[in-house]
Amino acid sequence: MPANLTPAYFAAEERFRSAPTNEEKILALEEMLAVMPKHKGTDGLRADLRRKLSSLKEAATQQKKSGGHVDIFHVPRSGAGQVVLLGMPNTGKSSILAALTKAKVVVADFPFATQVPVPGMVRYEDIQIQLVDMPPITSDYSAPGQVGTYRNGDIIGVVIDLSQDIEEQCLVLLDFLESRRLLLDEKTPALDSAGNALGKKAVCLCTRADLVPEGTFELARQSFDKPIEYLKLSTQTGAGLDKLGELLFRQLNIIRIYAKPPGKPADTKDPFTLPAGATVQDLAVTIHRELAQKLKSARIWGTGVYDGQSVHLTHVLHDRDTVELHFA
Ligand SMILES: Nc1nc2c(ncn2[C@@H]2O[C@H](COP(=O)(O)OP(=O)(O)OP(=O)(O)O)[C@@H](O)[C@H]2O)c(=O)[nH]1
Ligand SMILES: [Mg+2]
Prior knowledge:
There is one protein chain. By secondary structure, the chain is an alpha/beta fold. The chain has three domains: 7-66, no CATH class; 82-252, P-loop containing nucleotide triphosphate hydrolases (Rossmann fold, 3-Layer(aba) Sandwich), CATH 3.40.50; 254-327, Beta-grasp domain (Ubiquitin-like (UB roll), Roll), CATH 3.10.20.30. It has helices at 7-18, 22-35, 43-66, 93-100, 146-152, 166-179, 216-224, 244-252, 280-287, and strands at 82-87, 118-124, 127-133, 155-161, 201-207, 229-232, 254-259, 272-275, 295-301, 309-311, 321-327. Guanosine-5'-triphosphate (GTP) binds next to helix 4.
């Protein structure tokens, strides 16, 4: 019986073949299994793929257990969200970190100055957002494992140098993003059919605005042609840099909540951050998973409530609410 495999299957198979890491191979295999038509003609192939998948997963678990292998492209998340930069060589990625964070990055007027990811923290009002400097990519090179860093983050910060060939940068960057299914869009969901991370939000940071005529930024927007936010900046003059924190905060779609122990003042310095739409119950789980089961009631100061109002545990929180949790 013919297998009648679909274009979606062949696309996933192609990704499997070209995947540089086991993590990417696992994702591609899961996709192949998910999109494969289910009938007698595919039984053999399905069993074969399942065997491959389980041996890859086993290898990944062993690698983790042995602890011998340190993946430099795995950047542990920190702060309110993780934004990973993507760009061609010498386009100003490290300069953005140098300008906004205390991270020790190499800024240099030659390509491939950055060879490994370097995280730094950007302050926005009372929270910190993690920005990750990355090695560059070119039309025919990206470091093995680099895709994993983007897949693990919350947002991809696409960097385009306005003073270089914009069309070429857009071609290379979009090809990288689309061939790896990294960009969240109508065709690429945030999670694949097996529940693994797939598409990511992106923002576009356009550097060297100090060197180009008016209108170049607009050209970059048109050339990249994705419905995302674009920011024009210069790490030399500082123009635009002050807008980055707010832009990232908005794109992360998070809220800040100040916890107030009963009978004591609220902690107004170090808010908890939660996804927009989070409830009182979600806050309790974030603070303490086990204690959350004993949550009895809550009082709120903030949006849409009167000061100190008692609310239900399903009450949806707003940015900058202060919450007092009462446990049994
Ligand atoms: N005029 C101007 N120069 C900039 C700007 N941003 C970066 N530069 C310069 O561009 C050069 C490259 O900057 P880097 O930040 O090292 O570039 P990169 O993208 O990290 O480079 P790789 O590590 O090779 O990927 C440096 O000489 C910077 O001083 C900018 O906005 N305006
Ligand atoms: Mg660099």
